[in-house]
Design brief:
Chain lengths: 491, 250
């Protein structure tokens, strides 16, 4: 088995760092031109969507469940500081150790230091998007700790030198024959078939030794329970259960927003999460633990609570709802934009509609400003969100922040979009100005109108429209002109 | 019954036939119509691109011009969604108490066309005749913001000689999204390509909707690709009669 890092092919390696990723429209292009990727994403999403729709439909009280889940998450955020302190106290009393990390660098260092205390040269991991957010794996590898992902999708990505494109199904963009190719090459199994059973058997075989050999594990958390100091992790494969029970030391990394006030809140959250995320009545493995239990499971337990921009999101009234997210990915599965681009175009480990609002806010609105515009505002995300995050509303709020940042930049005075919107606003203030512009526009567009009465090509941003669509020539009479003529005739 | 028309900026400029059809349809149903010549735009384009201050000045104009209207009818679901979903926030943030009060009094009297026909006039059969195979695209704002539900289908079901062809993924976005279609032109085009496949697969001659913005997008691609289909606003189908067929079919 050869696990040396292969040379990165920079041209096709996705960049999931908001500091380095190109703006969304450019980042989307390679995806749009990749028929295999679009087919893989569309097919995978159709399967998940159909399962979700069926299981949501059988819940007659689905809307009540959504309201309850939304209220629980809102309550947790309203009193986040108090709930986090309560969690810390209960977790500590049960033998856990709680660490607070203000940003990604601090969290990475805390985790590396903990691993060094354990003299760990290897660590096994359960899928955690938060660790991808802080780019933990490359940091640990550079610090001399070999990282082994144990989630099937994460193994595919790690061995394939790829990046996650979805938060629940990270290798959603990879199909089974591509998985076969990666496993065959990296595990040295030339005769591997692409039968799903053969592929999972190969992964299991590869993993089982790691579960037994590596005494230190890293996990994320789906929920932290303030009332009891417990941590909950839900998963489908059982790898999480192995990581959470076999090692001697467990390090859990969790965003500070993951807290729930009461243990009984899980009743609601687990129902909406499983149905929304994977289209299951209940997820196959739900692991819950509280601190340390002598003689059972890991004997050293650390929780790293990560802020990394979250408390600044919390301070804003409209944007705060972003933190209600329980990472079910229903929004990206429903999103017609994500469906075409897949996740890598979002330049962040959080793709899709939730990524479009979360990533720029985690970047304090200094990077990823193209993401709030990566939506047609169709509202499908809000409709399916189990905790009722009004994503279109937050997108609009963030767009207005981007405009306020940029509107006085000298370059924007010559940007055709900004210029056009400013001029349009001036025209709309007085009907006579608007009507004059309509008449001038009618004359001006004659230059571009073909004999068939349609415009096939326009300059500047108009060309963005006509690159794939025609535009019908303006009528010789606007509605208000027709109305006025009709009035005159009647009189 | 009296009603005031709001024919928003792009309908006035690009689709005057839709406004004319609304006039012919509603007058046939006995509604007495007026139209304010000073109206311009609802501000949706500005609001959706992040220009809130500019959107607010459009919103103020609308309330000022229409505050005395008995009923306002708008044949554009996304503009109606602008009033319902975005005006309250704009007035809360930028307006004063008097403006908020005037808007709150006006809002319940603002109707999208199919809402006006079914909820206000209580008609489903408007006496229309349209001898064509038609498919209906449930636009994003119509279905998810206004919750129009089966209203358009109930109206279409009563149109004589019309065959309704069901559309797969009926409520999936066509990719227009206002300035999204130029800011993210390639992604928008990819969404359009997929939507158009579903629309063409219906075998319909016409694709209809309650929003000309989606229809401009779909129609622009149909024309570019010689898809053998046309778009038509639902108002024009409902205005069409045997004695006076829709101008779109001529």
């Amino acid at each position: 088995m050869s696990l040396e890092a292969m040379p990165h092919t920079a041209a096709n390696h996705p960049v999931l760092d908001p500091l380095l990723a190109p703006p969304f429209p450019q980042a989307a292009l390679p995806m749009l031109r990749n028929p295999q990727l679009r087919k893989n994403v569309g097919h995978a999403i159709d399967v998940i969507q159909a399962k979700r729709a069926k299981l949501v439909a059988e819940k007659t009280d689905w809307q009540d469940l959504r309201s309850a889940a939304s209220a629980i998450r809102a309550q947790a955020l309203e009193n986040l500081g108090a709930y986090l302190e309560q969690f810390e106290a209960r977790c500590t009393a049960a033998g856990g150790t709680v660490h607070w990390a203000a940003d990604a660098a601090e969290a990475r260092q805390i985790i590396l230091d903990l691993l060094r205390e354990e003299n760990a040269s290897e660590v096994i991991k359960i899928k955690t998007m938060t660790s991808a957010e802080i780019q933990l794996n490359p940091f640990l590898e550079a610090g001399g700790v070999k990282v082994f992902e144990t989630d099937l999708a994460e193994i595919i990505l790690q061995l394939g030198e790829d990046e996650p494109s979805h938060i629940v199904v990270p290798a959603l963009h990879v199909n089974r024959s591509q998985v076969r190719e990666i496993f065959a090459r990296r595990m040295g199994l030339e005769n591997l078939s692409d039968d799903p059973q053969a592929l999972t058997a190969a992964a299991r075989n590869y993993l089982r030794r790691k579960f037994l050999d590596v005494p230190t594990a890293i996990s994320g958390a789906n929920f932290l329970i303030a009332e009891t100091g417990s941590v909950a992790v839900v998963e489908s494969e059982g790898n999480g259960r192995m990581c959470l029970t076999l090692p001697k030391t467990m390090i859990t990394l969790a965003g500070i927003e993951k807290v729930l006030p009461r243990f009984k809140d899980l009743e609601v959250m687990l129902q909406v999460l499983a149905r929304s995320a994977t289209g299951e009545r209940m997820n196959p493995y739900t692991s819950l633990w509280t601190g340390v239990t002598p003689g059972d499971g890991p004997q050293r337990f650390h929780v790293v609570l990560l802020d990394n921009g979250r408390s600044s999101i919390l301070a804003h009234k409209t944007e705060r709802q972003t933190l209600k997210c329980i990472r079910c990915a229903a929004c990206m599965n429903a999103c017609p934009v994500y469906r075409q681009t897949g996740g890598h175009a979002y330049g962040s480990v959080y793709p899709g509609p939730i990524g479009a609002i979360l990533t720029p806010q985690l970047m304090q609105m200094h990077h990823a400003q193209s993401l709030p515009y990566a939506s047609s505002l169709c509202g499908a995300c809000y409709e399916v969100c189990p905790v009722k995050i009004n994503i279109p509303e937050v997108l609009l709020e963030l767009r207005s922040q981007v405009v306020n940042q940029e509107r006085h930049h000298i370059g924007r005075f010559f940007d055709p979009m900004y210029l056009g919107l400013r001029v349009a606003n001036f025209l709309f203030q007085k009907a006579w100005r608007f009507h004059l512009a309509q008449r001038l526009g009618r004359i001006g567009l004659r230059l571009f109108t073909k004999k068939d009465g349609w415009i096939h090509s326009l300059p500047s941003i108009g060309g963005k429209w006509t690159q794939t669509r025609d535009l019908r020539a303006l009528s010789s009479q606007t509605f208000h002109e027709w109305w006025a003529a009709r009035r005159r005739e009647a009189e | 019954m009296r009603a005031s028309l709001f024919i928003t900026c792009y309908n006035d400029t690009l689709f005057p036939e839709t406004g004319r059809a609304v006039v012919s349809l509603l007058e046939r149903l006995g509604v007495s119509l007026d139209f304010h010549p000073k109206q311009t735009c609802c501000g949706q384009m500005h609001a959706n691109t992040g220009f809130r201050g500019e959107a607010f000045s459009q919103a103020k104009r609308f309330v000022r011009l229409y505050q005395d209207a008995e009923t306002v009818v708008i044949p554009s679901s996304s503009c109606v969604a602008m009033f319902r979903d975005q005006y309250p926030g704009l007035f809360e943030e930028l307006g004063n108490e008097a403006l908020r009060r005037e808007f709150a009094a006006l809002l319940p009297r603002v109707y999208e066309l199919s809402e006006f026909l079914i909820d206000r006039l209580g008609v489903e059969d408007v006496g229309a005749w349209f001898p064509h195979r038609v498919t209906y695209h449930a636009s994003c704002h119509g279905v998810r913001a206004l919750h129009l539900g089966d209203r358009p289908y109930r109206l279409l079901a009563k149109v004589r000689s019309l065959t309704l062809a069901p559309l797969a993924n009926v409520d999936r976005c066509c990719g227009f999204g206002g300035t999204f279609s130029v800011k993210n032109a390639e992604v928008s085009s990819a969404m359009l390509a997929v939507k158009l496949q579903d629309v063409v697969a219906t075998g319909a001659e016409y694709c209809t909707a309650l929003d000309n913005s989606c229809l401009m997008h779909l129609g622009g691609a149909m024309h570019r690709q010689y898809a053998g289909m046309k778009t038509i606003h639902l108002a024009e189908i409902l205005a069409s009669t045997e004695a006076s067929p829709s101008e779109a079919t001529r």
